């Protein structure tokens, strides 16, 4: 690994992760901070100043050691609740459009990656922020994504299904699968168990949920959800396993619906970009529906995407002085 060259950051709603990187994008150190929703403005109401202070305090040691460093940030930091708004780039979007549309701060040393927008397959407006950077990184990590038509899935609170064509983001579709899971776990009588990401999932119950969905794939999800409660009452499901059964139903439904809408009947692997907790669950759901998958680490993809933006912006500066 080389000397410190730039700072990469994923600044989401609830969490900030900053990474000190060398010129090749290798991780040297990390720091964590409050998410965009947790940055509170001062008495003058200046959120911009509050974000500047939060960022400066976290990188102060690095800049004292290595001097002023360029930085690239993605996520909700570029939203209406963030540091400054980075306008969405409309699909179809090429990777270089995202790089060119970055918003600059701190005298041009800090770049914020914009999000993407589209009119999805259901004729509804759709948006993403943060995932576009993972897509940029995946294009660097998996070069075959730059050729032909590819289907990506980025599991999360709001799962994104993305259609790539020769490396261009043509369209995407959002499914609030993770959010619905949390709401039903925490605020309904169906499960009565708080959803905690750190808890290990009951894989038997999860696969049972997938299997039950597969028995009646044409049924509306709304007509399946009460099973999380009724199967407990009937003694077919342990109370502590209801959350995993629910997850199987939800992810099974998410995968089934997305494949019907977006795969166009083409037998192709789905590229799963996300955490090691979620991508295996989606891989099982895809496999249960006869679809292969390839898993890509989400954190690595995000870092690779931020490093790609940094390289492109640095090359532009060097070219134009």
Describe what this molecule looks like in 3D.
- The longest helix is centred in the last third of the chain and has 23 residues.
- The chain has 9 helices and 14 strands.
- It is globular, with a radius of gyration of 21 Å.
- The chain has a 6-stranded mixed beta sheet with strand order 3-2-1-4-7-6, with helices on both faces.
- The model has no long low-confidence stretch (mean pLDDT 93).
- It is of the alpha/beta class.
- It is 38% helix and 24% strand.
- It has 2 domains: 85 residues, 2-Layer Sandwich (Nucleotidyltransferase, domain 5); 219 residues, Nucleotidyltransferase, domain 5.
Descriptive terms for the model:
321 residues; Nucleotidyltransferase, domain 5; six-stranded mixed β-sheet; five-stranded mixed β-sheet; 9 helices
Break the fold down into its secondary structure elements and pairings.
Blueprint: E1 4-11, E2 15-22, E3 27-34, H1 47-66, E4 71-75, E5 89-90, H2 95-100, E6 103-105, E7 110-112, E8 116-119, E9 125-128, H3 131-141, E10 149-154, E11 159-165, E12 168-175, H4 177-187, H5 203-215, H6 227-233, H7 242-262, E13 270-274, H8 279-288, E14 293-297, H9 298-320
Parallel strand pairs: 1-4, 4-7, 5-8, 10-13, 13-14
Antiparallel strand pairs: 1-2, 2-3, 6-7, 8-9, 10-11, 11-12
Helix pairs in contact: 3-9, 4-7, 5-7, 5-8, 7-8
